[in-house]
Design a protein that fits this description.
Layout (H helix, E strand, L loop, with lengths): L11 H9 L4 H15 L4 H13 L5 H31 L3 H6 L2 H7 L5 E4 L7 H7 L7 H8 L3 E3 L2 E3 L17 E6 L3 E7 L3
Parallel strand pairs: 1-5
Antiparallel strand pairs: 2-3, 2-4, 4-5
Length: 195
């Protein structure tokens, strides 16, 4: 599925709503109630029930999440909402299952700046081989040291053994992809061509 717009590009109002999460509870509830009534087709009884749940447990941000979901569904449709949920789980909750369910296009959209490489999986391919093949680490002892120091994450799990052979289902997901991260923000997506 190709996106014509970023699934996370919700209206500016929703971004501003995140700022209200730090404000006074009665104002937050009033704002969410108002926006749920204005921007969704939810029945008023459902809106009132959400607001009551929000008052009882504000840390769960139920109204905020529902508003974001309803607006996303209006803008991108049901498939877009499901894709946005998978992307959110993969990105913010470190869900490997969500990564496995994502298509190549969804991963490329989610990690827009990340290089996407297709590599042949040869028997005995190690963590350091994969990192060097996508140019994620420098050649020589510095790259080896980066992995040993824990700067490399594969599918949301820290990898600190450079000579570790890549293991299917752990390093290579069932969809043939690997999400590689070096440091905090440097992502690489690897599509393995033969498993």
């Amino acid at each position: 599925m190709k996106w014509t717009a970023n699934p996370f590009a919700l209206p500016v109002l929703l971004i501003i709503l995140q700022l209200f999460c730090k404000g006074k509870l009665k104002y937050i509830v009033w704002i969410f109630c108002r926006y749920l009534k204005l921007f969704t087709f939810l029945p008023l009884a459902e809106v009132e029930r959400l607001m009551e749940q929000q008052r009882e447990n504000p840390s769960k941000h139920l109204a905020h999440k529902r508003l974001a979901a309803e607006v996303t569904k209006l803008v991108h449709g049901k498939e877009g909402l499901e894709s946005a949920k998978r992307c959110t789980n993969a990105l913010y909750h470190g869900s490997v299952q969500a990564l496995e369910q994502m298509s190549d296009e969804e991963l490329q959209e989610l990690f827009r700046e990340a290089p996407f490489r297709e590599l042949f999986l040869e028997p005995g391919t190690t963590v350091i081989d994969a990192c060097r093949n996508v140019r994620a680490i420098p050649d020589g002892p510095r790259g080896y040291q980066m992995i040993s120091d824990g700067a490399v994450w594969i599918n949301h799990k820290r990898e600190d053994k450079p000579q570790q052979v890549l293991i299917p289902k752990l390093h290579i997901l069932s969809n043939g992809l690997t999400l590689l991260r070096v440091g905090k923000k440097n992502f690489y997506i690897i599509k393995w061509l033969s498993l």
